[in-house]
Amino acid sequence: MGTISLTELGSKLAGLMFIWGTIQQFFPYTLRKRIKSFWQKFENYFYPYVQITIDEFTNGKSNDIYTQVHSYLGTKSINKDAKYLKAEKSKNSKSFAVSLDEGEEIIDQFLGAKLSWRFYKETFNENSSGRNNSRPIEKKSYTITFNQRYKEMVIGKYLKHVMEEGKVIEFNNRKQKIYTNNCSEDWYWYDKGMWRDINFEHPATFDTLAMDPKKKEEIVIDLVAFSKGKDYYSKVGKAWKRGYLLYGPPGTGKSTMIAAIANFLNYDIYDLELTSVKDNSGLKKLLMETTSKSIIVIEDIDCSIDLTGKRKKKKKKNEETVNEDQEDDSDLSKEKASENKETGKLTLSGLLNFIDGIWSACGQERIIIFTTNHKDKLDPALIRRGRMDMHIEMSYCKYEAFKVLAKNYLDIETHPLFQQIQSLFEEVNISPCDVAENLMLKNASGGPEICLNNLIQALEKAKEKANKDKEDKEKTSLNSKNIKKFSTKLVGRLKKLLK
Q: Which Pfam families does UniProt cross-reference here (predicted)?
């Protein structure tokens, strides 16, 4: 039997199609419709698959779906049997990413469906410019092939799942940033926007944070609940944000706590310097340029700018005429009228609106953190629940926190000197910063015992100073009592003489 060439086969198929088209003209419309329906069923039986193409660019713009599919398949390709892969790394990524090479196939499964992914790349020259040395253009795309009975599920659920997973992978692989607002007169400093940024590479974690373990666990549980609370916040009708007030003496780890929270949630940090903000309008513009999944920090808020002086004066004046019980915290409703008359100035009401007003809902999944050494100096309206939802006291170092520092700096969990140190911690107030300085190895020959002895000496000096201060205070108090007693007797004698 002779072989048939592709040319002859194509010619015969074309002839059959022509004859079939001619014959159809003599069939009634209803019969043609039934034949067409039967043919489609026959075709679907032998090739019951649907293919969806996802291009890198659509209408000249970047296709977000392509980027998320690229990230999603990168993790899948490591766990599957794909053999031809590519490794890529961008400057904004923590590590390299693996992706499919051209023509490689990977099989994914979802809700019982089997789905085939392939990557395609087409390279061609653009001759519209008329230059021979024009750079070649690459057209990249992914195709997904699946049985048509899963079409509704793939479009309705699977692609959504791929996009969400891709977003998470992109977010976790990006480099964290720390931003600061521009101090320039011109907000858009050299066209770089209102924020400048650098990579955030602080190593602090909750494991290395010197803090009471129970309090630490409480904070971690709260952060986890917040990060997973999208549906809950939507249900109760609140913006997806949370406020934390960190307060306590200097050196107790407030800034380290912020770094630990950022690393735990993988959020960016916006360090807001209020003294550089001109007015309420400028504050709103800064807020609009922050991203979701971020932490907005105002450190030492009691020192940043005087926002409470006018309120305190009004409160004192009102107390002369109005009962104190009748005064409530109504977000400065009495002060707003006078503050609105002032232009070109940052006001307390502007800051409150920034925290939990309408403008605070312009982004999602954000944490606002205030730090202060003097909680009592802050206006109650600024730190009430709902604005600063969780008040976290960063206290002096105690024995449990010391053990964390000993593990961090000396890599030890127990030592014979720990018992003496524990008894001293019960009598002395010392900051974690001072404890860490004494535990730090100053030279190669130093060992854990030398550092622990240094800490004991520091604790004993602090104890002596605390005892001396206590004695001086008692003497001062005793002298004051004696002077008062003597004055009382003297007044009594003078009264008798005058009689």
A: AAA, AAA_assoc, AAA_lid_At3g28540
Residue found under tokens 């990413």 = 97
What strand order describes the sheet that includes 268-271? 195-199, 177-181, 268-271, 294-298, 366-372, 241-247, 390-393
Q: How far apart are CA 420 and CA 397, in angstroms?
A: 15
Q: Give the span between the Cα atoms of 176 and 270, in whole angstroms.
A: 11
Strands (E), 264-349: 268-271, 294-298
pLDDT for 341 equals: 47
Look up residue 224 and give its two tokens.
Answer: 């986890």
Max Cα-Cα span within the chain: 151
Higher pLDDT, 74 or 216: 216
What is each CA distance from 51 to 54, 66, 69, 165, in whole angstroms? 10, 15, 15, 21
Q: What is the mean pLDDT of the chain?
A: 79
pLDDT in tens, 124-157: 766 544 555 566 777 888 889 888 888 899 998 9
Residues 30-49: pLDDT tens digits?
766 666 666 666 655 666 78
What pTM was estimated for this model as a whole? Answer: 0.73
Residue 286 CB partners (closer than 8 Å, separation 6+): 181, 194, 195, 272, 277
Instruction: State residue 177's pLDDT score.
Output: 93
Instruction: Write down all domains in the chain, each with its CATH number in brackets.
Output: 34-124+135-173 (no CATH), 179-307+345-393 (3.40.50.300), 399-487 (no CATH)
Measured torsion, CA atoms of residues 253, 444, 442, 455, in degrees rounded to the nearest 10: 80
Q: Are 194 and 181 in contact (CB under 8 A)?
A: yes
Given a contact cutoff of 8 angstroms between Cβ atoms, the answer to whether 84 and 103 are in contact is yes
Give tens-digit pLDDT for 393-451: 999 999 999 999 999 999 999 999 999 999 999 888 999 999 999 998 766 566 888 99
Q: Considering only CA atoms, which of 385, 386, 178, 373 is closest in space to residue 273?
A: 178
Q: Round to whole Å and give the CA distance between 481 and 484.
A: 5
Whether the CB-CB separation of 278 and 303 falls below 8 Å is answered with no
Backbone angles phi, psi at 458, to 5 degrees: -65, -40
Distance in Å from the first CA to the final CA of the chain: 151
CA gap 246, 253 in Å, rounded: 9
